[in-house]
Specification:
By secondary structure, the protein is an all-alpha fold. It folds into 2 domains: about 90 residues, RNA polymerase sigma factor, region 2, helix turn helix motif (Rna Polymerase Sigma Factor, Chain: A, Orthogonal Bundle), CATH 1.10.1740; about 90 residues, Arc Repressor Mutant, subunit A (Orthogonal Bundle), CATH 1.10.10. It is built from 9 helices and no strands. Helix 2 crosses helix 4, helix 3 packs across helix 4 and helix 7 packs across helix 8. It is elongated, with a radius of gyration of 20 Å. The protein starts with a helix and ends in a 5-residue tail after the last helix.
Length: about 200
Amino acid sequence: MSPNEEKIWRSIQKRDGQAFEIYYKEHYKFFLLAACNYLKDPGLSQEIVNDVFIRLWEDAGTLRIQSSLKAYIYRAVVNRSLNELDKNKRERKHQAELSRRPEETFELKGMEENELKVRLYKAIDQLPEQCLKVFRMSRFEELKQQEIADRLGISIKTVKNHITHALKQLNRVLVDWNSLPVWIVMIKYFFWHFN
């Protein structure tokens, strides 16, 4: 790490918000282009770069960076981009498999399935107000985390926390339920884009 980078990194580790912001602004476009090079999606690339910087800020006190700071962030952005491509590839493959199966495979049938659906919607309605807003915007309106954060005037981290809390609540309903095939079907309805 160059002396200048080491100085900046030490400042960030000491929770110097101004040093962090300056570094972010100076290098943001470079990392955004790196992500776009893989993803071809500026919005998703922006989300990944922001997530990497958020994690860097949150973990600065415990991170040990051997190479340069820029190289470390670049590698993190590339890894996240590759993971996203891999996830999208798996989702497309799964979607293709689903489209080859009869439509009735995905219809909820019978009283048990309807009861589970009612329980899940009831669990959603019982979420705290802000958590419910975030969850609906994410799952039903299919907004990206940054879009939700911008609309509600909250941080991406807060958005993620609300989504995690909501999924944990819904998972409790699923864990209590004994019907595995129904659970698999319900994944399509509630968790399709979000692993």
